[in-house]
Every structure is written in C-alpha cells, then in structure tokens.
Amino acid sequence: MTRTVTSPYDVAEHLRTPEEMAAYLEASIEEAGGDAAFIAKALGDIARARGMSQVASDAGLSRESLYKALSGERNPSLDTVLRVVGALGLKLRAEPAFDPVPAARHSDRDRA
Questions:
Q1: For 22-60, how does the pLDDT look when each residue is reduced to its tens digit (9 = 90+)?
Q2: Which of 6, 57, 61, 105 has the fewest CB atoms below 10 angstroms from its CB?
Q3: How far is C-alpha 38 from the geometric centre of its chain's CA atoms?
Q4: What span, in angstroms and rounded, lies between the C-alpha atoms of 85 and 30?
Q5: Are the C-beta atoms of 11 and 24 separated by less than 8 Å?
Q6: Phi, psi (rounded to 5 degrees) for 70
C-alpha cells in the first residue's frame, strides 16, 4: 500500500498581497463569532506572512511579545491590535449589523 505524505498547511504562505491579507482578516472577523483570540491568531498569520520582526518593529513591540499576543491563546489589548493592524498597512472598519431605521420610517424619510 502506498503511503500519502502530507505536510501542515500554513496560511501565511498564501497571503502574498495586501488585498489577500485584508480579505483573510475580514473573513476571520466574520467567522470569529466574537472570539478575540481567533482574530488575534489571524493577525498572527498575516504578521508571519509579512515578517514578524518587521511587523513588531513597525508596531513598536518586541518580537516575543508580538508572538505571544498573536498566538491565539490570549486576548490581546485593543491597543496591541490597532498597532499591529496599522503596522500591517490594514484598516479596521465598522458597519451596521442591521438596519437601524425601521421600514416604516424609511417611507416617511423617502417622502421628504
């Protein structure tokens, strides 16, 4: 019988462009369901793709603390997340999760 040889999949090897990195982070945020450690792990994947030492330097953090913060085993502070996102050349943005204006009010607004 022939054995199948496998190797671990590393998403960082496939994140080559800023667009791919942004799409991966956005998909991770949607998939996380509020799990900050999951999002931190995705940021860690992107940082590894960019080069952890360079990202740490650009974020003003030590490489070791960055590895720990983005390991997926901790919930990093918002300050750390924002520094890393900035160092990666990405932006976080917000959008409404639902339409804050009830349908009845839409018709009133449309008549004005």
A1: 999 999 999 999 899 999 999 999 999 999 999 999 999
A2: 6
A3: 9
A4: 16
A5: yes
A6: -105, 20
